[in-house]
Amino acid sequence: MTKILIVEDDKTNCDMLERLLSIHGYEVITAPDGAKALSAARDQQPDLIIMDMGLPILNGWQATYRLKSSSATCHIPVIALTAYALTEDRTRCLAVGCDDYDTKPIDLPRLLGKIKTHLDRATAVGFVVSMPTGGSDDDS
Question: 130 falls in which pLDDT band (50, 70, 90)?
Fold first, then answer.
């Protein structure tokens, strides 16, 4: 099963996103801050990370930079999911290594599309073992 790490310090947002992704067939692990995200990414080797940027301890920019600087985690796609919605925020996210960027409030179909795109790319280069098996209407 495809594993996604959600890095989100807001419990309500994290729970909601965890439920939605689980319904769509993903195995979900969570981390409440950037430091725990680094540890979870190294230990659990998720197939994709959804990263809030306004986090305690290590913010999302710092955590992403460290993830992308490590040979153990640099291959994991990171999607920034943040309330920071200005053009310069997007630019900053991409500059530290995020592979994509999306804004809150969550537009689930758009986010699922971005997740699928990045998982497909990772699969093409051999980093994702399996795609989700349930919850999708487009299994053709």
Answer: low
